[in-house]
Design brief:
- By secondary structure, the protein is of the alpha+beta class.
- It has two domains: about 70 residues, Immunoglobulins (Immunoglobulin-like), CATH 2.60.40; about 110 residues, OmpA-like domain (60s Ribosomal Protein L30, Chain: A, 2-Layer Sandwich).
- Helix content is about 30%, strand content about 30%.
- It is built from five helices and twelve strands.
- Strands 2-8-7-4-5 form a five-stranded mixed sheet, with no helix packed on it. A four-stranded mixed sheet has the order 9-12-10-11. Strands 1-3-6 form a three-stranded antiparallel sheet, with no helix packed on it.
- Helix 4 links the parallel strand 10 and strand 11.
């Protein structure tokens, strides 16, 4: 009887042990954690080249035919700058003098890695104004006309070159003489009191002939113009001052 009980206990313990073993075999194993996901770094954006710029001006923007004007330009971000109408390739910024014969629109083009762009400037060219010829009063005698219109030319000390104010005077003389082609003249060369008589006679001769050559260059016939030198013999003013001496240094024009 005891052996039977003992056998049952052993079987029960064995069965319990087997049940525990089987239960452990079916225990779920936790899955391994997922591998970390790699994060990709975005590529930097591609650099964009800046667009070029250009500006163009012209001054003055209105001229007469034969005159000149100045183109001025600036640019940025450009590797090449050109201006049309005969100017060509130029530096990135600068100035250029042009003399168009007709109204012209200039175009500047700037080219660079970022593209190209243009700018324009226009100059208006007009025909030169005709010279105004004074109305000649036929009742005015040649002598009075000469007195009213003919001017002397003055010189610097010890010089016989035609200075700007003398040029203006002789140009006026040429216009007047062209209106009265029958008038013939003599140009007297004069000097101030300084220097020897011989030296001043030679200097007066050079002054008279310089004035004659200037008139001939303006279209006055050389046959209408004689010259003579008086040196310092016939002074216009007798004071010993620079103001007086300037009055004596002259090419005096007289009618003959």
């Amino acid at each position: 009887m005891r052996r039977t009980r003992y056998s049952l206990v052993v079987i029960a313990l064995f069965a319990l042990s087997l049940l525990i073993t089987l239960t452990g075999c079916h225990k779920k194993v936790a899955p391994p954690p997922p591998a970390p996901t790699k994060t990709e770094t975005p590529a930097p954006p591609l650099a964009v080249a800046p667009a070029p710029t250009v500006s163009l001006t012209v001054s003055p923007d209105a001229i007469e035919a034969g005159q000149s004007t100045t183109l001025s330009w600036t640019s940025s971000n450009a590797t090449n700058v050109t201006i049309d109408n005969g100017v060509g390739t130029v530096e990135s910024s600068g100035k250029r003098t042009v003399s168009p014969s007709a109204s012209t629109t200039y175009q500047a083009r700037a080219t660079g890695a970022g593209g190209n762009t243009v700018a324009q400037a226009r100059v208006t060219v007009t025909a030169p104004q005709p010279a105004v010829i004074p109305t000649v009063n036929p009742t005015v005698s040649d002598a009075l006309f000469f007195e009213q219109n003919i001017k002397d030319a003055y010189f610097d000390y010890d010089q016989y070159n035609i200075r700007p104010d003398a040029q203006s005077a002789l140009q006026a003389d040429a216009r007047a003489l062209n209106q009265r082609p029958g008038i013939r003249i003599t140009i007297e060369g004069h000097c101030d009191e300084r220097g020897s008589e011989k030296y001043n006679l030679a200097l007066g001769d050079r002054r008279a002939n310089a004035a004659k050559d200037f008139l001939v260059g303006l279209g006055i016939s050389a046959g209408r113009v004689d010259t003579v030198s008086y040196g310092k013999e016939k002074n216009e003013c007798e004071a010993h001052t620079e103001e007086c001496w300037q009055k004596n240094r002259r090419a005096h024009v007289v009618m003959r």
